[in-house]
Design a protein that fits this description.
Helix content is 42%, strand content 21%. It has 338 residues and is of the alpha/beta class. It has a 7-stranded mixed sheet. The longest helix is centred in the last third of the chain and has 21 residues, at 273-293. Residues 125-245 form the GFO/IDH/MocA-like oxidoreductase domain. InterPro entries: Gfo/Idh/MocA-like_OxRdtase_N, GFO_IDH_MocA-like_dom, NAD(P)-bd_dom_sf.
Amino acid sequence: MRIGFLGAGRIGAFHAATLAALDGVGDLVIGDADEARARALAETVGARAASVDGVFAARPDAVVIATATASHAELVTRAARAGLPAYCEKPVATDLAGTIAALRAVEAAGTLLQVGFQRRFDAGYLAARAAVRAGALGRLHTIRAVTSDPAPPPPAFLPLSGGLIRDCLVHDFDAVRWLTGHEVREVYATGSAGGADFFRAAGDVDTAAALLTLDDGTLVTATATRYNGAGYDVRTELAGERAQLVVGLDARTPFASAEPAGPGGPARPWAGFWDRFEAAYRAELATFVRAVRGEVANPCSGEEALNALLVAEACELSRAEHRPVRLTEINERVRDVS
């Protein structure tokens, strides 16, 4: 299989190396707006380099999009119009209009689009989903989701990210829907920006919290912060009438117990998302290759990504207007955009 690969930045370098090592990927053509960077990465992983146009001209069997967020929607649309299956790092776009336009192009072309929500491929999340779906926890009544970065991103990243809720908590929103099989009915969200001035300058927050009510009455708290000096912390706690289960609780979880007999902090806490989810990222791309071959169903379609974004949009509206927001209100906005 020939894969056209777009993006030679940090995430692109990791994904390109993963694809180059996969069985069945016989040819990898790497393109980037910075052609010198594309050539350097291609040389490192044993691939060919081309311009972005050259990648499409190479007639690949599929494309992987790992470019800057601002270019995702355009490239997803271009791949669809070329009849190519595509994998795209999330988000497809940071706004509803851009996302819906790109998904329309995919639908019209009838092509496959897999969006990168790597938690769906993590061993802990997979085990938790199986337990929930098998009824091992009994009736699920509470979920607590945590996403904490050890340090803020560069200031220039914030205006391009869509904000903390769309950038970070959207992973939790997708995971909650995927774990439970239920939809979010209503949200209430708030945030604070007590850290660096550049958060306030960007109209963003460095810490956020959301209360979600699912359509079966399950309550979900989802929190995120850019300031967790103890390390990278991603956990999801699922509480049912019969039992509780935690994803992300292991010897590297970056917290210590205050109890005299409790565990201390880890000697080597998780440093970041690469460290924590490396195996999941590899599994995600291997699954994409299998999906292109028709061996498995698409594990995370564009519609799934849109549904997670709709929850994020509801949370942003709630944060701005200090009120609960029902998802039906956001769905009406989608109809207006459509």
